[in-house]
Amino acid sequence: MQQLLKEHLSLSDRIFDIIQEAILSGSIGPGERIIETEFAKNLGTSKSPVREALKKLEGEGVVELLPRKGFIVKKIDRKSVEDFCEVMFMVELPVARLSLKKRDSKACKKLDKILKDMKNSLTKKDYLLYLTLNRRFHGVFYELTKNELITKIFRMLYNQTDIFRSTFLYTSERLLRSMEEHLAIADAFHKADQELLERAVKNHFVMFKENILKSDFLSENR
Q1: Which domains does the chain have, with CATH numbers?
Q2: pTM attached to this predicted model
Q3: Helices 148-166 and 11-24, interaxial angle, to 10°?
Q4: Which end of the chain is more exposed for a tag (fewer CB within 10 A), N or C?
């Protein structure tokens, strides 16, 4: 694990990345306890920076602190999914419209490169990389708005989105369909067709919601 520590980050930020990667990879699932002493021991550090990283993850909605239990990965239930997707619909469509106003050849090439890498990650069955690239793909649209507050909202929303995605993408045909949906979004963006782009984005998140609600990882489905 120590090899994963990034030298340019603070210790708590490095630990933040490691814990988050463990959650996204499925090593720690929804509802599972995060044992601070084990992380501290494995990383050769005290509990203090581990606790600091967990508090940051709590602030971003990834983990929660329960009395007498400590930190656990947030459980996924129907209410949390529906609440989250309601917010995503409120944010994603306006962002799509704003991004078209700043559309340029550089952004189009960036999307094409990310899509190529996403396809390669599927070929290699590197699903954690796919999640990372998926986040990068959607980040392009947020970055184009040139709005600092919107990019902060993006980071918060996609931390939670990645948790949801990590619970069902690895074990279903959703991966291939997800790829098709991203291609449709990029195609509409290349064509500068606002109506087509909004339809593609909406379809992507409708499917996202439906697949999470059917997932075996959803607490009500167990």
Answers
A1: 2-73 (1.10.10.10), 78-221 (1.20.120.530)
A2: 0.77
A3: 40
A4: C
